[in-house]
Amino acid sequence: MTPWNLLDLNNALRASWAADTCSPSDLSGITWRADNPAWGHCDITALIVHDIFGGELVVGEVHHEQDQHGFHWWNRLPSGAELDLTREQFQRGETVTKARVVERPPGPLRRWDEYLLLRKRVVEHLGHLPEPAA
């Protein structure tokens, strides 16, 4: 059993998100800003939540003004509850559609360095985390 709760994890993630962990391949051209810290962090945040709680990874398409602008990741916990810790990043009327469950990518991820950096920062706030899920 972990000595912290979901609120602690949420706070640790929020304190750890930064420009150097934001997705550089965002199609919208919007850069990371401190007033929208969740921006560009959904994939690696969902993977850290998956490391801790397991469950399923969910991915949907992000649309703005009829055009697709990338993908959004979140979690479905083993209880069936959906947990999206980065949903507030969408502040311009974006919609997320076509949600589907995906398998966790094996091995080093596309954004492996950013994932490891974010995970390291979260560990600094919370202490030891479970090893990444296989």
Would you mind describing this structure in some detail?
- With 134 residues, the chain is α+β, with helices and mostly antiparallel strands.
- The chain has one domain (6-126).
- 28% of the residues lie in helices and 22% in strands.
- The chain is built from three helices and four strands; from the N terminus they run ααββββα.
- The protein has a four-stranded antiparallel sheet with strand order 3-2-1-4, with helices on one face.
- Strand 1 and strand 2 (67-76) form a beta hairpin.
- Helix 1 (6-16) packs across helix 3 (112-126) and helix 2 packs across helix 3 (112-126).
- The longest helix is centred in the C-terminal third of the chain and has 15 residues, at 112-126.
- The protein starts with 5 loop residues before the first helix and ends in an 8-residue tail after the last helix.
- The relative contact order is 0.23.
- The mean pLDDT is 88.
Oligomer: single chain
**Terminal Cα span:** 20 Å
Task: Spell out the helices and strands N to C.
Answer: HHEEEEH
- The total tally of domains equals 1
Overall form: globular
* Helical percentage: 25-40%
User: Looking across the biggest beta sheet, what order are the strands in?
Assistant: 3-2-1-4
What share of the residues does DSSP label as strand, in percent? 15-25%
Major β-sheet, in short? 4 strands, antiparallel
DSSP E strands, number: 4
> Nearest-angstrom radius of gyration?
14 Å
Structural class: alpha+beta
Number of discrete helical segments: 3
Question: Unreliable stretches, pLDDT < 50, 5 or more residues?
Answer: none
How would you state the average pLDDT, rounded? 88
